[in-house]
Amino acid sequence: MYLKAEQIAETLKVTSLTLYRWRRDGKGPPAVKIGRRYLYDEKAFQAWLAAQPTGWKNRPSSDD
């Protein structure tokens, strides 16, 4: 099952623009391009999320 960027953004409490920047910079959860849209495989997203430091102290920054 694939999740939309809006769903991922809501879960992570970031904006869709931040997700775009993370994709551009090679950071954040893995995304796949299907047609014109970027989608997130649910299992890959959950694995990425589980691998992140507790409290998101070192989460990717959109300011980098």
Mean pLDDT: 89
- The computed structural class is alpha+beta
Rounded Rg: 11 Å
With strands numbered from the N-terminus, the spatial order across the biggest sheet is 1-3-2
Biggest pleated sheet: 3 strands, antiparallel
Tell me the span between the first and last alpha carbons. 31 Å
What is the count of DSSP helices, taking H or I runs of 4+ residues? 3
Uncertain parts: none
N-to-C series of helices and strands? EHHEEH
Question: Which percent bin holds the helix content?
Answer: 40-55%
Indicate the topology:
Layout: E1 2-4, H1 5-12, H2 16-25, E2 32-34, E3 37-41, H3 42-50
Antiparallel strand pairs: 1-3, 2-3
Offer a few descriptive terms:
alpha+beta; three-stranded antiparallel beta sheet
Question: Can you tell me about this structure?
Answer:
By secondary structure, this protein is α+β, with helices and mostly antiparallel strands. The chain has one domain (2-47). The protein contains 3 helices and 3 strands, in the order βααββα. It has a 3-stranded antiparallel sheet. Strand 2 and strand 3 form a beta hairpin. The termini are far apart. 16% of the residues are buried.
In short:
With 64 residues, the chain is of the alpha+beta class. It contains 3 helices and 3 strands; from the N terminus they run βααββα.
